[in-house]
Design goal:
Rossmann fold, 3 domains, 52% helix, disordered N terminus, disordered C terminus, plasmid, Resolvase-like_N_sf, DNA integration, SSR_resolvase, Recombinase_CS
């Protein structure tokens, strides 16, 4: 009796196959990559036009933020996705954190298979070795330069050459964009929910309650960059309407509650007293009922999405 063939494809995740096609300039076309991606089973394909030397890729960042658990990001070749091994590993780490996978059609990288994961570990080891070798070369270069009486570093920067300073500024802006995109899924949804009804002070306070270190000015600058790159709506930058003091307290209480929903009303009241926050009537002693009123208002305003409220005393 013939053996029933095994269904090897059943081992693959049942999510979507999402293709990512990138070319360096607007004059180039992605049709060739799209044909290969569709042949591999990708129904959705995201296109990107951007230099391979830059990590600032809004379409890729948006895809990684919005990809679902079980989905697989597919590229034709590794160089279409990442500019370096470290960049590739960073993207795959972000996908793994979302429960998603990665596959390259032309390379032995497929995080849905044991062989692909092994290849990824080899790449990680190569990246670590590369960083160590670069560090040793840098130290040796500095030592040799000092022995010859030369100053280490970029002479263009020391001399203030305009072209060197311009390149440095561009590199800093690119690095800033990469940092923002890598953490946007942690803070941008909260900003979208609260702006422009709430001030930057209110939002940064909520974020700090959740363990995210944001000042109002840094947060506003980050959102301004996201808007300029087309990754956020410009309405987020509209001026907030004047708000009474009680609304500020509502935002503060909502932030404390959302950072730890297990806190009782009395525990939240104690925190407010330690912060020297006055009650809506100007008192210094907080009652659990006052905290509950502010939490209920936060729910009605949409500031708190969770249905449950803080525990009773």
């Amino acid at each position: 009796m013939a053996k029933t063939p095994r269904n090897h494809s059943s081992r693959r995740p049942q999510g979507r196959l999402i293709g990512y096609a990138r070319v360096s300039t607007d004059e180039q076309a992605t049709e060739a990559q799209e044909m290969e991606l569709r042949a591999a089973g990708c129904d959705t394909i995201i296109q990107e036009h951007g230099s391979g030397a830059s990590r600032t890729r809004p379409a890729l960042a948006r895809l990684v933020r919005e990809i679902g658990a079980g989905d697989t990001l597919v590229v034709v070749r590794l160089d279409r996705l990442a500019r370096s091994v470290s960049h590739l590993l960073d993207v795959i780490e972000d996908l793994t954190a979302k429960g998603a996978h990665f596959r390259s059609l032309s390379d032995p990288i497929d995080t849905t298979t044991p062989q692909g994961m092994f290849s990824l570990q080899v790449l990680g080891a190569v990246a670590q070795l590369e960083r160590a070798l670069n560090s040793e070369r840098t130290k040796a270069g500095i030592k040799a330069a000092k022995a010859k009486g030369r100053l280490p570093g970029n002479p263009g920067l020391r001399e203030g050459r305009p072209e060197t300073l311009a390149k440095m500024t561009a590199a800093q802006k690119a690095a800033y964009g990469v940092r923002l995109q890598s953490s946007a899924n942690q803070w941008l949804p909260i900003v979208r929910r609260m702006r422009p009804d709430h001030t930057w002070d209110d939002i940064s306070r909520v974020l700090r309650q959740r363990g995210l270190d944001w000042t109002p000015e840094r947060l506003r600058r980050a959102v301004k960059w996201m808007v300029s790159e087309g990754m956020a709506d410009k309405s987020l930058l509209r001026k907030s309407p004047p708000r009474p003091a009680e609304d500020r307290l509502m935002t503060l209480v909502a932030g404390i509650h959302s950072s730890n929903p297990e806190l009782t009303l009395r525990e939240i009241a104690n925190q407010l007293e330690r912060l020297h926050e006055r009650t809506p009537r100007g008192g210094t002693k907080w009652a659990p009922s006052s905290v509950k009123n502010l939490i209920d208002r936060a729910k009605r305003s949409g500031l708190l999405a969770a249905p449950e409220h803080a525990g009773e005393e």
